[in-house]
Amino acid sequence: MSFLARLREDLDAAASHDPAARGSMENLVVYSGLHAIWMHRLTHRMWARPGLRFPARVLSQLTRFATGIEIHPGATIGRRFFIDHGMGVVIGETAEIGDDVMLYHGVTLGGRSLARIKRHPTICDGVTVGAGAKILGPVTIGKNSAVGANAVVVKDAPADSIITGIPARWRHRQVKETQAAVDPAEYIDPAIYI
């Protein structure tokens, strides 16, 4: 896919995920989530070349200072990825993110180990992660799932799950939740209100 085609795809993804998006030119200039992912694509290519790992880290840190979003150059990120607002997002080195994933601000895809192993989450296609959620360790969040705001996830969740709470628990989506757009910020854990 050409650079311009990928740019257009990212701008379209931003417009489809954010009702406040007013046009491609404005999104191109002011969306820090887009800037962070574009720079990540460059640093990820550099990271793949052992002689360029240090410059990749330096460039990723400059991007962090400019956008408030920290994405390690080693992280693998799919197409049409969108970070809404973005401030405080952290994505670790061994994180794997599928296509059509959306993160809100304050999300951490972090590790729980100091060993040089797969220590960050795998986020499958079509997942939405609510503001402030923490997904920690080499867990897998299944396709088309939603992680609620401020959830702390330390265990795997299957496809089509709603994941909420501290520590987070998952449940399957109900039929009505698969027919409409899902806003994970509105999910609550019913167990804490019973």
From TrEMBL:
The keyword Transport does not apply. Its EC number is 2.3.1.30. Keywords: Acyltransferase, Amino-acid biosynthesis, Cysteine biosynthesis, Transferase. InterPro entries: Hexapep, LbH_SAT, Ser_AcTrfase_N_sf, Ser_O-AcTrfase, Serine_acetyltransferase, Trimer_LpxA-like_sf. It catalyses: L-serine + acetyl-CoA = O-acetyl-L-serine + CoA. GO terms for molecular function: serine O-acetyltransferase activity. GO terms for cellular component: cytoplasm. Pathway: Amino-acid biosynthesis; L-cysteine biosynthesis; L-cysteine from L-serine: step 1/2. GO terms for biological process: cysteine biosynthetic process from serine. Belongs to the transferase hexapeptide repeat family. NCBIfam families: cysE (TIGR01172), EPS_EpsC (NF041874). This is Serine acetyltransferase. It comes from Arthrobacter sunyaminii. The gene is cysE.
